[in-house]
Amino acid sequence: MNRNNIINFLVFQINWVIAVFSAAKGYPWLGPIFIFVWVTIHLYINKLFIWVELPIFFFSGLIGYLVDSLLLLNNFIEFPTHAQLGPLSPLWMVALWVSFSTTFRHSMNWLKQKYIFAVFFAFIGGPLAYFAGQKIGAINGINEISSIIAIGISWALAFPFMLYVLNCIEKKYGNNLC
After folding, report:
1. Is 178 a member of any domain?
2. Residue 36 placed within a domain
């Protein structure tokens, strides 16, 4: 992994910590601000590939909103009042999905063509991230195995699908990294 990919991965982790901890403390708007700044910097750094990066950000945000909203509507997760910002899936969660998508062409580039491994990675990693968010106090309701399985399946479907869409976008606009 090169230096830029390490920075990319670390910034995503920092964004996750800021978004989740600030939502847990009643400042759910703080994470989206930090993530917006990061995405702006990321797009500037990768400006030659903005037509690859930008669509996947919007698509990932939309998928994240739909996944989390469906989990919420089906009572697999819930957000405490102090962590809500927006209807259904809060803005800070959508921002996290967008932040996550900044890794697809960079620190997580190794997963782009490995859909089966991406399914496994997402089935385990998705619930772990939500469970960590619950321990911090930004999300609730992940106390039953049904919630963990629902989150895992949702992520196991969403993540490879996002990678597939990214691969299609790259075929159209080019996939060379800066």
Report:
1. no
2. yes
